[in-house]
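Appendix B, example 12.
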Amino acid sequence: MNNTHDLIVSGIHLELTPSLKQFVHDKTERLFRHEERIIRLRVELECDPKQDVAHRFTAKGHIAIHGPDMNASVSTDECHKAVALLVDKLDRMLARRAQLMKARRHHADRRALREVA
């Protein structure tokens, strides 16, 4: 992983095994490849035994990026599945953000052209 990126993985009521940390690292690497302006990515994995089985594991992601920060949360019955779903969700959010930024740039270009003409 590039040294400019910062990945923080923490567990709440959950022991973070080396294999789980590696799984999170491998999955989140995709986000850093898609968006190089990510400053920090924090992933919190939580196990709540009081919740029903379908929502026992929660994965929360917080992306610190130039511009507004992004947050997402996913609950499911298995920790690895929660991480995979969270990364997919964050990836979709980053793609949508990139599309909106691109549209905003093109819109500004057209507006500038109209003012010149």
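The domain at 6-91 is CATH 3.30.160.100 (Double Stranded RNA Binding Domain). The radius of gyration is 18 Å.
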